[in-house]
Amino acid sequence: MDVNKVLDAKGLACPMPIVKTKKAMNDLEAGQILEVHATDKGSKSDLTAWAKSGGHELIKDTEENDVLKFWIKKG
Amino acid sequence: MTVNTMSSHEVTRKIVQKETLFILDVRNEDAFADWKIEGANFDYLNIPYFELLDGVEEIIEKLPADKEILVVCAKEGSSVMVAEMLSEEGWTVSYLQGGMKAWSEHLEPVKVGDLRDGGEVYQFVRIGKGCLSYMVISNGEAAVIDATRMTDIFTDFAASKGVKITNVFDTHLHADHISGGRKIAEQTGAMYWLPPKDAEEVTFTYAALEDGTVVTIGNTAIDIHALYSPGHTIGSTSFIVEEKFLLSGDILFIDSIGRPDLAGKAEDWVGDLRESLYSRYRELSGELVVLPAHFMIMDELNEDGSVSEQLGTLFKKNHGLKMEDEEKFRKLVTENLPPQPNAYQEIRKINMGKIMPAEEEQREMEIGPNRCAVR
């Protein structure tokens, strides 16, 4: 997967992971991919719902050693 | 305009006094649909906070000008953000201190009755989750029944009353919330009682609570009689306190009855549940005041915020006690059951002492309503 940008949102509490993701997304072109790292457990459901409502595609997500990773394709 | 905070205690008072409140819940739609703050005169607007990052203009026309507004989210952070945005637009709003996490953990102590020689019974209402715990106080001693994970509330309350906790009980192995019973017993040196049939897999030592066990609290003989009443679990036990109160655990609630399926044995236990409710409880005095371990809806709260009703009244009004047809009863408690409580299998394991996740994880597992009843 070609990742265009990586956002480190580890250690940030809600709402900051989404606020930062949204900002990072603004710098990308449609079709480009943003990789997000977060530790707030709530980010999973929130990022999923946010991506859906914003027309983006959550391609993949993983959880390893308490770090959640997301790959979002800009819509 | 200023942003105010509102505590879970203040929200509870509004529920009990049936006040109006407009709740702007900025959690995900799924989370809101699953579980929210319920009040008879509360109105709601659910819009996830991430829909409001560019501004709150789109919701302003949906906000009432004549009602107090409370912004709610999971852990407080997003509600503060949205409350501040509304404040910048000239609105005076509050946010819920600690969010739904604090709401889930809030306990409200209410006195539910007097016992002889100055003894007292207190109910601890976990308003957000619908769990009820109890403290029976007599002559310098206290018993705690069905304690929640927030054990400080009970030990602090006992200290404020100047009493020593000597006995701790769980009416059954809980599946919807993490018991604080063992921890309180360890901290205070109290005896921890569990029904042995629910405790076959536990990893710690406990005192076996059998049918007919009598435990005396204080030296003026406030007796707690154990009454074996299986059905919600195979070990479920009720308590009769001084021939006055019936602590019914998860067998009988005010407007519903216990579900028999949370240990995966609905078909096996339905007969026990029927026997407990339709035979064992029938033999008891109708004047006993029923004090259950849960409530489901705010309508079950009395005017003082407590949850209790005379057994005789429940025999007349509780739908689950009036089904003469055994087959219909079996269907009610085994078919079309509500969803199971969040993480109930893990919670059972924690209560058996098999796993011990970090506190934050325990908190997450308990999110949501208790769902121990069928109506």
TrEMBL record, chain A:
Checking InterPro entries in the record gives:
TusA-like, TusA-like_sf
Q: Which Pfam families match?
A: TusA
Q: Does the keyword Transferase apply?
A: yes
Name this protein carries in UniProt: Sulfurtransferase TusA family protein
Keywords of this entry: Transferase
Q: Which family does it belong to?
A: Belongs to the sulfur carrier protein TusA family.
What organism is listed for this UniProt entry?
Gracilibacillus oryzae
**In what residue span(s) does the UPF0033 domain sit?**
7-31
| UniProt-recorded Gene Ontology molecular function terms | transferase activity
UniProtKB/TrEMBL annotation, chain B:
Q: Would the keyword Hydrolase turn up in this protein's UniProt record? A: yes
One GO term under biological process is: hydrogen sulfide metabolic process
Q: Which SMART domains match?
A: Lactamase_B, RHOD
Q: Where is the Rhodanese domain?
A: 17-112
Keyword annotations: Hydrolase
**Cross-referenced Gene3D superfamilies, in alphabetical order?**
Rhodanese-like domain, Ribonuclease Z/Hydroxyacylglutathione hydrolase-like
Identification of the protein by name: MBL fold metallo-hydrolase
Q: Which organism is it from?
A: Gracilibacillus oryzae
